[in-house]
Structure formats: C-alpha cells, structure tokens
Amino acid sequence: MVVSLNMAMVLSAGLGKRMAPAANGLPKPLVMLHGKALIDHALDRLAAAGVARAIVNVRYKADLIEAHLQKRQAPTIEISDERAALLDTGGGVKKALPRLGPGPFLIHNADSVWIEGVGSNLARLAGAWDDARMDCLMLLAVASASHGYQGRGDFALESDGRIRRRKVEQELVPFAFTGVSVAHPRLFDGSPDGAFSLNLVWSRAIAAGRAYGMRMEGVWMHVGSPDALAESERCLSGVLRS
Questions:
Q1: Which residues of the chain have pLDDT under 50?
Q2: Which of 217, 7, 230, 4 is nearest to 97 (CA)?
Q3: What 3-state DSSP class applies to 23?
Q4: Are residues 147 and 231 in contact, defined by beta-carbon separation less than 8 angstroms?
Q5: What are the boundaries of each domain within the chain?
Q6: The pTM is what?
Q7: Alpha helix segments (H runs only) across 49-146
Q8: CATH fold label, 7-241
C-alpha cells in the first residue's frame, strides 16, 4: 500500500533549550538555517512531496510560530494548540489524531533537515509502507555520516526491515532516527492520556514486530544545538557551491 501523502504532523512544541544560545529569543522552529526558518525547511519538503495539510503543534512562544505560518501558502496549516498542557511528542500527536484522519500519515520533526540523494526520501517512504505489516515506518540515517548527531545510534535494521533498539547500552547500532516517520492511528491504541513520548508507542510496536525502518538516501542534519546549526550551515553552503 502506498501512503497518500496528504496529511502530516509537524512537531514544533518543544522548548528548544539546547538551541537557546543561537536562537536570539526565537523558538527553535524559527531559527534560521541557510536563509530559511527550520520549520520552513520541513514544510517546503512536505509541500514538494504533495502533502496538502499539515497539523503543527505549538506551545513555547506559540504566537511567534503562528504569525510566521500565516505567511505560508502550502501546505495548508492547522494549529494544534498545546499552551494549556505539556504533551510531549506522543501526547501531541495523539491530541491531533482526530484531524489527521483514519489512515497513515507523516510525522516530521521541525529540526530535521536533509540533502536528498537519488529521488525523494518521502516518496520512497510512502512507497515502502505496508499497511498489513506496519504500525510505523521510520526514516533512518547512517549515524556516522550524519551531522549534528552525537549518539551511539538509535536502531538497527533486521533483514526483513524491522527495527530493534540497542540490546545493551554500550552497543553501537548503525542508524539514527531522522525525526521523520509514517504512523497509523492504531499505533496509539491504548496509549495514555496527557503527556507521553513517542518512544512509548514505538517500543510497543517493536515488541509486536510492527515497527519498520527505511534507510534514507542523502545527508541528514539534526539541527538541535548551536554547534549543529553551524555544522549544517557549512554543509548546505558547501553543497550549493559545488
């Protein structure tokens, strides 16, 4: 089953504390990278992939994000207001489920940027979706070749495309989660009300054998700190000069 890339959730409600020294008082989604706000990098990518509507959750300095998004033409933006309660990533998506529809949809972190390889990674992600087998499908980057990522890897890919976490804390696994995935609403069945991390529902899907991954083509940048912002700026500048 090919996912219809009509709906997406853009996660933009975090406090962005690590980015604060470079943010000049802005919320992280509005920090500029290569002449464009981070959230516009994500929304432009979604629009190019044919996404018609995007739900954007807001909390920290929400008024600034809402004002910025009013200038956009595509995709059509709907705001999920989280000013009243901190919901974390999983709770934020769950709150927006009634507006995301009954089928699979994209989830995209506002601080995830990449340079495409061959073709569109979002189109490849859509083409890899199998509704019978999957509750979530994650876009994964090779951790050692990524920018702004300092971890020991997030996931390994099994031979059938399923993902697994590190078996022990010291294990190195090859792939970093790019912050982009396809999810089906059933992923959230039985999840708690209020605040919770997406890690909760991912772990349940992994245990049930219904969490899959796809290796991205290209260069991924996790723009989560001032150092990562500077590194991503250099990376993008080098590509455009070449």
A1: 1, 240-242
A2: 7
A3: helix
A4: yes
A5: 7-241
A6: 0.94
A7: 62-69, 88-100, 121-128
A8: Spore Coat Polysaccharide Biosynthesis Protein SpsA; Chain A (3.90.550)
